[in-house]
Amino acid sequence: MKTVTILGSTGSIGTQTLEVIEENPKDFYLVGVACGHNINKFREILNKFSSIKYACVEEKEDYDVLVKEYPNLTFFYGENGLIELIRTSKPNLVVNALVGFAGFLPSLEVISLGIDLALSNKESLVVGGDLINEALTKSKSHLYAIDSEHTALGKCLAGHKKEEVKNLVITASGGSLRDLPKEELKNVTVEKALKHPSWSMGKKITIDSATMMNKGFEVLEAMHLFHFPLSQVKILLHDESLIHSLVEFVDNSFSCEIGPNDMKTSISYAMYENNRHEVNTASLDLSTLSALHFRKLDLDFYPCLKLAFRAIEEGGSSPCVLNAANEWAVYAFLDKKISYLDIARYVEIALNTFKNIPHPTKDELVSLNNEVRETLQKIYEGGK
User: Fold this and answer.
1) Tens-of-pLDDT digits for all 384 residues of the chain?
2) How far apart are CA 46 and CA 70, in angstroms?
């Protein structure tokens, strides 16, 4: 039986991870959980899982309240609290379902402690993929990606030599705005951008899907996970989101994984160390599918993806700048402070402003992440 700690337990991936644990009580035992601001949902988790001994929240105010409500639990708070939660709960497996840069340092900590990491936090690899891979070479920790695209790629690559592979092909729904005329993008509301055609996800990742920044992140993830260059990682629009990724081989044949658009399949695969296990999801009835649709990617429609490719090509600290600027801009859009098209504009400003550091250290990435956000906030306030 694996003992498990979940970072980001109240989010979409976190709650589905809890379902996998509930459905497999002989295989997983939940010992630690962390959350951001959804304290009511967090209480439900703490009340439901009697096995939990350690918990972490983001704010000191919430910590003060919960410590009194749950005297039998050990609580932590803040960024340092996440690290203490990992160290104190001593799990066999950490599921990192945090959103944004906040997941990077916990991922490094998990690996440094030799604990297995099921990683949903894209930003860990986007910001510091080189540092993550370097840490893995010095640790007994294993990294298992929680992402339908990368789960599919791993399955399709299994048993094949690298020289047999021509391209990795990551599929993309195109996001909530994919059928909108380009001239109407300037009028996109938050509500419209949040209506994803295929997946039910958190707000931040749904906006990243609309801009396709998430696919830029996934390309870089694939490069770090499977060690292929950018020239061999492609993106293909696929309306139904049922084919999760493909591998094109040198003989011009393809392998792909097709399955329901349910993240529990990917979560289960990661938690079972990249092994298949029965999952409580709706079965996909292929006889009901009349067609599957694919389209070429129009980069002009997705300027954020263009910027992601630029950052990937530059390497070094540029992906960290990309991520920090995107996080700032997406939340500014969600708060209705900037327009949808301003997301790409602010990301480009950041990439043009900050000089690239070829081989950044962990401390340099942390400092740069903060500096990018502060700079964009000042630019925004100066332009109001």
Assistant:
1) 999 999 999 999 999 999 999 999 999 999 999 999 999 999 999 999 999 999 999 999 999 999 999 999 999 999 999 999 999 999 999 999 999 999 999 999 999 999 999 999 999 999 999 999 999 999 999 999 999 999 999 999 999 999 999 999 999 999 889 989 999 999 999 999 998 776 667 899 999 999 999 999 999 999 999 999 999 999 999 999 899 999 999 999 999 999 988 999 999 999 999 999 999 998 999 999 889 999 999 999 999 999 999 999 999 999 999 999 999 999 999 999 999 999 999 999 999 999 999 999 999 999 999 999 999 999 999 875
2) 9
Superfamily of structural domain 2-145: NAD(P)-binding Rossmann-like Domain (3.40.50.720)
Q: How many CB atoms lie within 10 A of CB 25?
A: 11
DSSP state of 302: -
The structure tokens listed for 56 are: 């972490």
Side chain identity at residue 92, one-letter code? N
Buried b (16+ CB within 10 A) or exposed e, 219-230: bbbbbbbbebee
The one-letter amino acid code at 140 reads K
pTM over 0.90: yes
Q: Which residues of 349-373 are buried (b: 16+ CB within 10 A; e: fewer)?
A: bbbeebeebeebeeeebbebbeebb
Q: Are strands 233-238 and 143-145 parallel, antiparallel or unpaired?
A: unpaired
